[in-house]
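Journal club side-thread
Mid-discussion, someone asked how the predicted structure for our own chain would compare to the paper's figures. Pasting it here so we can look after the session.
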Amino acid sequence: MIISASKRTDIPAHYGEWFLNRFEAGYCTVRTPPGKPYRVSLRREDVDGFVFWTKDIGPFMDKLAIVHGSGYPFYVQHTLNNFPASLEPHVPPAEASIQNLRRLAELYGPDVAVWRYDPIVITPEMPDEWHLANFRRLAGELRGATNEAVISFVDDYRKMARNMALAGIRWIEPGAEEKRRMASSLTSIARLNGMQLTMCCEGDVLPEGTRASRCIDAARMARLSGRPLKAKDKPCRQGCGCCDNRDIGEYDTCIHGCAYCYATNSLTGAQDRHRAHDPIGESMHSHM
């Protein structure tokens, strides 16, 4: 089984000590209301590899060394948008993330770092041209550090729309043709910098030269592990290309405070949960 850590929160940035404690214990407990808590094995014989999701891998680099030294393959889905603080108030500066992604590649190779420019948020202050220039600059800085760039466009989730309104963000939902044109331009920029552009859950607007992303990717994990890996496709929503996995994160626990977040109802609530978090507990947050 591939372990996802995590699409629901940023474990590397905020819960690295807890992860390492559970990694050494060989299991964790996951609580995702309204379901019952369930136990997930983290033992080597049960885990094909880890996919870490983060906007700040820096605090987790020493933990990655332990995971690597224990013989587990892994790769990192690292979001780097370089958006203004109104959208990403508690995300590290782009320069720090660029350095960390380049360090990942130096230590473990370009298959370990996947760059996510995700989600693309169109606003009057950030039109298509702004994103093209921003992406071009970041792609140039990341040349050689990654072989894949993942994009998506912000979705009109209820939680996201409320959080964007609270932050005073006037966002514009682009039409299919606008998405396709922008993705085509981003594909060319990515290719010039040695990257394949993929699109997450945007299958209806894929331009030529772009493919659907497989964020939980058995083929990538197999390359990293050096052995075949079979995993069934298990999409989480329409257009998703992910394979079967087990996510060990919990919603409403990320404290980055991004206005477009779909996984957090309230930054204040997430901060309260983070303060109550016990790094030696079996689950990330025991008092749901």
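Post-session note: The chain has a mean pLDDT of 93.
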